[in-house]
Amino acid sequence: MHLFQVGAGSGGMAVLDFLARDSRITRITLVEPDVYAPHNVYRHLFPLSSVGRLKGELAEEWIRAIRPDVAFDARVEDITDPARQAEFARIASACDVGVCAADNEAAKFAFDALMRGAGKPWTLGEVLSGGIGGWVHRFAPGAACYGCVASHLKREVTEQPSGPPPDYSNPTAAQPEATIPASKASIAVIAGMHALVTLEMLGERRPNPLTPFPKKEGGTEPSSALSPSPLGDGGVGSSATDSALSILFSLQVVPGVFDTAFRAHRLRIPRAPTCLTCGESAPAPTGNQLDAALDDALARLGAR
Q1: Fewer beta carbons within 10 Å, N or C terminal of the chain?
Q2: What CATH number has the domain bearing residue 83?
Q3: CA 229 to CA 226: how far, in whole Å?
Q4: Side-chain-side CA neighbours of residue 162 (13 Å)
Q5: Would you say residue 263 has pLDDT above 70?
Q6: How many domains does the chain have?
């Protein structure tokens, strides 16, 4: 199977490592333009000696060391580059599943447009600031798009951000929210969930951390912190819906945010009928329509 992934940061590389160890993955295309920086080291898989090298090249070496049989194509490119959209669309059409580990909204919208245009399933993982928890989102062909999810979660998008996204791996960063970095352990938990959801989209049926323990005779009900299958009753093989699945998992107690650690919250987010990119009246964008689809999504969220 062919995996198409964008992003090989601390979370993206952890997910890629998990997925590449599955024997069904035989081809990987990775889009990652960034260089490995000193402040990445303490929570990344790559060593200090690799600082200054391209993350894509390092990822290829890492995967080839554990899966020399995998065909690996590392592309030092920006997933939002208008000049590359036709090429990315061909990759999306050829892949079996997509993984988004990008850290900015524009990249998420761009990847969403590519995967919807190709009619392929994909997943998205996000670690919250400070490592207090994280999201894993699952998107299926014909179901709600990332714009529907972002709108439901009231996320704001700007076409031209005021500055680079906060780097949560740098304790001395200028942004206040980046002064408490996410730990490698927090990243690994969310990355593991991200990998499990992705594998289940490929038909995997292994036990996962969100499956409830069976009730023993005379015992008590399992904790409500444990939800059924992260993909809903029946997993991905159940009847299709027009919803995206979003799983929020808490890792710390945070007053006003999470009252309990290690609790899963599942959201079924339906496709918005008036969505300009996935609504009933909107055709799926392909080829030259990808840029227009991204513009529509940004406009719908009030970015223009």
Answers
A1: C
A2: 3.40.50.720
A3: 9
A4: 3
A5: yes
A6: 1
